[in-house]
Amino acid sequence: MDLWVFSPCSGSWLILIPRDLPHGGRSPIMESVMTAEQKSALAGVVTIDKEVMHGTPCFAHTRVPVQTLIDFLETGETIDDFLAVYPSILRQHVFSFLELSRDIAIDQLACAS
Q: At 93, is the pLDDT very low, low, confident or very high (cuts 50, 70, 90)?
């Protein structure tokens, strides 16, 4: 599942999830505001700064986009493979990001039904 977390100009955090349509197309992006708990959990793991990678969500204190981890996993590579290429990323940050992404996706699915 695709998942992006970003900070728009308004300063509020939004979750954007493209939804698949039955005929194979994509719907407009569904949007909801992050809970305070989710925002707090994410704060030390992912940073969004217009001055770093043009505001692309990156692992904290790095220039490594979180999308890179998703790309690694989608191609069948492991978390260990990712950490070998990006040793500056903490293993706990990877797991925290994945856990939060899972929780957000489950919340969104529960709201959609």
A: very high
Nearest-angstrom CA–CA distance, 30 and 83: 31
pLDDT for position 10: 36
pLDDT in tens, 19-46: 444 455 444 444 455 677 777 777 789 8
Q: Which domains does the chain have, with CATH numbers?
A: 4-112 (1.10.10.10)
Residues 87/65/111/107 CA torsion (nearest 10 deg): 10
Q: For the chain, how far is it from start to end, CA to CA, in angstroms?
A: 17
Sign for the CA dihedral angle at 61, 65, 70, 73 comes to negative
Is 2 exposed, middle or buried, given 0-12, 13-18 or 19+ CB atoms closer than 10 A? middle
Cβ pair 93, 59 in contact under 8 A: yes
